[in-house]
Structure formats: structure tokens, C-alpha cells
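Slide 14.
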Amino acid sequence: MYREETYGAGWVTFAGIMLMIAGVMRLIDGIWALRYDGAVPENLQNSALGHSLTTYGWTWIIVAAILFAAGIGVFTRSQLARWTGILAAALGALTAVFWLPYYPFWSLMYILLSFSVIYALGVYGGRDVPVQ
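Slide 15: predicted structure.
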């Protein structure tokens, strides 16, 4: 049986999977921040969310839930899910910026992942259009 391919379906699948992976990664970060007992990075008191890793932990857990739910929603191909995915990816990038001075490599990975998802949903997340 022949199935017509939807234009950009691979990009949309990529965006949904990456949002869910980013959600899991943020959940792990949140759990780490809540359970961490070692020395906190220098100058953490001057950062955007304050000096407590507990604040970061709960923020990341909330962001994780939003990212994961948006990733699942992207697979419905609805416009609401598309825009929710774009906003969730932007939120993921924004929360990575807060931690950029302390862990630049991982923060840049989150930001790159978020921009890839925004690109995928912005360009290919529209209505289904069959390939000619």
C-alpha cells in the first residue's frame, strides 16, 4: 500500500523527539540540583534565579514537564501544538542561558537543540501538505 509522504514530516518528528529528550534532560538536571550536596559554583548568588540550587531544581522540573508535554503534542500536527512546541523550545533555551557562565558546553547544547526545534517547527510544522 502506498502512503503519501508529508512535506517536512522528518523535521517535525525530529522536533517532537528532541523536545521530549530535552524534557528528560531537564528533569535529570532538576533532580541533580535538588539532591546536590557539594560546593555550588562561585557567584551563583548573582545569577538570575538566586543562590539556591533548589530554585533551579524546581524550575528545571517544571520546564521538563512543559518540554515533554510539548514534544508529545507536536505529533498531533495541530497549530496549537506547533506554537506550544516553539514556545517550549524558547523556554528551554532561556533557562539554559541562566546556567551559561557555569556550564557553557551543556548550556550551548541546550540552546542549539532549542534553536533546531524552533527551526523545524517554524519551517515545517505547518499544515500537512503532500509531496508532489
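Speaker note: The chain has a mean pLDDT of 83.
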